[in-house]
Amino acid sequence: MKKAEKNTGKTTTTENTEITNRQKQFDRLLQATSTARQIKTRMIEEAHSVAVAVYYASLPLNHFLTSYVYKAEGITDFKKFQEWKQAGASIIKGTKAYPIWGQPVGIQKEERAEEKGESYEATIEENKRFPMCYVFSNLQVTTAAERGSVC
Question: What is the pTM of this model?
Answer without folding.
Answer: 0.73
